[in-house]
Amino acid sequence: MEDITPAEIDNLQMPVHPRSEPLPMVRVAGSHREIGRQIGEDRADQVRHSVENARTLLDQTYDSLELTWEGATIQSRKYMPFSQERYPQYVDELIGMAEGAGVSYDELAVVNAMEAVAMDALHLTKCTSLAVNNDRTADGHVLVAHNEDWLPDDEQDVYLVHASPNDEPPWLAMTYGGLLPNIGFNAEGIAQCCDTVYPNDTRIGIPRVMVSRAVLAARSPSEAIRSALVPKRAAGYNHLLVHETGELYSVEVSARRFAILYGEDGTIAHTNHYLDQKMQAIEDESDELISTRLRYFRAMRLLKRSDLHTLKSLQVIQRDHLNFPNSICNHSDTDIEPLDREKTICALIIDLTSRAMHITWGNPCTSQYHTYYLD
Fold this sequence. Notes:
There is one protein chain. The protein is of the alpha+beta class. It has a domain at 123-373: Penicillin V Acylase, Chain A. Helix content is 33%, strand content 23%. The chain has 13 helices and 14 strands. The strands form 2 sheets. An 8-stranded mixed beta sheet has the order 1-4-5-6-7-8-9-10. The chain has a 6-stranded antiparallel beta sheet with strand order 11-2-3-12-13-14, with helices on one face. A hairpin with an 8-residue loop joins strand 13 and strand 14. Helix 5 packs across helix 6 and helix 9 (208-215) packs antiparallel against helix 10 (221-228). The two termini are 34 Å apart. Mean pLDDT is 92; it is low at 1-17.
């Protein structure tokens, strides 16, 4: 791991001492409306704060995006009917969350469609995902790792959801504020990590967060992939999908295209640019996406450095500071524009074999991992 100099630390929004507190976890069960309401009631402060953060972000970026909160509300209303048509159960989760937290459904619609209505113009997110299968771990377990990079103001709103829906496999996933959960794993042995990518074929359709929420309900790898490729999607993530048998896939998605990459040697990694050649042809402003390429090459080099990985070896990768502050362990620089002050707000490792999630609250270099299980 690269060392950080004292001068660099002075410019960071990071704790001086390790963050030791565990993330809050809410247990929910029942219908989708009931699940959403239980999340909203338990995490009301976080849901409301995420709405406030979204309003503030649009205010701060008006000169660039020329988009007001009222305009974002109008735009999000164009996307949600597509969600209602395909995934009424997840719209019910948003309605229930709004009821439980005492906010409006329109406000949560903006939060969950924010990437579609505003974020694509910013090249903001810097997430890193990787996985190793049972052939490449010391204990024969299947491990999946993800650094979630986002705005520092949203770090306080991160939490876990342990859900037992009436009509879906139980799942354990990370989320923050009023976003539908999507990064986690389910009782069928399927894990998902999402990395934002930037296609130029975006359109009005089902928001990416809604699509990725549906993947958590999958009962097989093919069903998970099919969910990521749902028709009428607005754009796409890279969905890093892993099955408990050790199958590793990166499903690169845009509004109209997709590519499936396979972890040939028992390892796989992805950041925020397309790897498949036909997907690269529709990448928007590819020349701006430099740090994501450096993070990808760095992650792959560190993965190949060990023949057999462990939780600790993946944690070392998650803490890596090459190309600091735009590193795998991403730090926020207070001297730059607010839009670019992104950081790793949590880092997680899923042990699919043990049905466990090891997760930090904040940067993994300064925070402790805590372990949660899917019952």
